[in-house]
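Before we proceed, please read the two lines closing this message. Let me know whether the structure tokens fit the sequence:

…
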Amino acid sequence: MTSPISPRLVKGGIITLDPDTSVVLGVIALQYNPDSLSRTLQVQATPGSADGNRVDALRLRGPAIETIKLEADFDATDQLEFPQRFPDAVEYGLHPALAQLEMLVNPSVESLLADDALANAGTLEILPLEQPVTLFVWSATRVVPVRLTDFSITEQAFDPQLNPIRAKVSLGMRVLTIDDLGFSHPGGRLFMAYLTKKQTLAARAVSPALTVLGLGGLP
């Protein structure tokens, strides 16, 4: 039994938003928080010119390109112990939870049918429908718009009907910045909020004296 004084465990997860109204369309909470999360930041530096002219090395063309990778575990075993409370787990195993994640990288059936209807009506050029904004949430200081770039599922155990009951999901995400979305887009505004929080946290870091680095002063 969980102690009443135990801190509430905050889940990592994914939120989808309507790109026009910013209305929340869906919330996915990871069943178990990953033990680790890797982030890579690629600097958007000003490229050198081909003619060898001097380039200002201190200029940045825009926000760094950040990628995030994690592995999340899903397990229906606990739910299967209480079939009356979790009938879907008994009938489908982890299919609903995995399908919810898979729909992040698939267009809806309705949008595909709408595109087909336009094509059959003689429309020569079809602009793909805009997908919902995907937000990766990892604490209140990390709510950031992303595009899923890598997605793999390893199903590790099955029930007698071959429904998966244990699985590992690997997610790779690229953070979308104002360079991708613009300042007025809901995702762009959320990125600016994310960057503002990062800048605020950086200001709270303690800067040691130069002597800590073995320097009495700069040359």
